[in-house]
User: Fold this.
Amino acid sequence: MSTVWAQGDYHRFATELIWHFGPELVADTGIERGMKVLDVAAGTGNVALRAAETGALVTATDITPEQLAIGRREAEARGLDIEWVEADAQALPFDDDAFDVVTSAAGAIFAPDHQAVARELRRVTRPRGTIGMINFTPEGLAADFFTIFAPYVPAGPSPTLWGSEPYVRQLFGGCELDLVRRDYVERVAGGPQGFADFYRETFGPAAAITDPQFARDLLAFAERADEGESDAELRFEYLRLLAHLPPA
Assistant:
C-alpha cells in the first residue's frame, strides 16, 4: 500500500485540491497551544503543519515514508517542530490515552481494516479527548470515483463507508458524535481531460495504474461529473466527524 501512495506527486495533489482540509479540521477540533496532537495518515502534513502553527505538540504518521520526507521538509521550511513517524493507522505505535486530539483528513479511510483503525484512534486518545476526521460520503461523487478503481486494485471495503453516519456511529459507539456534511469543488484547468491527466500525474492510486482502459474510465467519470465551463469543476461531499470520548 505504501508504494502505491508514493506514486505520482501527492503533495501537488493535496496542495492544489484539498489543502483547505487542514485549517478546517484544526479549527473544528479546537487545537491550540500546548495540546498533544496526533495526525494519522498525515500525507505531507495537511493537518499537522496547521496544528503545529497553533503551538500544539504535533506528531504526524503515515504509511508512506516519501510523504513523511516531504512533510518534514515543509515543516523545517516553516520553522515548525513536528515529530514524523512511519506507522500504519491500523497499529499505531503509541501508548494508550497519549493525545488530546487525534485527526485524519481523508487519510485513514483508505486503510482496509476499518474496525482496527477506529479502535486505534480511540485507544491513543485520552478520556474526554477528541477525534476529528474528514471522510468522503457514499452518497457523494467520491463513491462513483472510487468504483473506477475496482477492476484494477484488490477488493476491500469502500473508503466512503467512513462517510456513512450509521456506520461511524457503530465504529465510535459510546462517543458523543458531532457530524456535519459539507462539500467542496475540485477545479482543474483543461476541462475533463485536464482533470483526468492531473489525477494520473499526482494521485498515487491513479498514477500506479498503467492499463489504458483506466485512463478512459477516468476521463468518462470526469465528463459525467464536470460542472464547469472551460475548467473542470467537480463537487465532492464529505462528512466532518468529531468524536468526543467519554470520561475514564
Remarks:
- The chain has a mean pLDDT of 97.
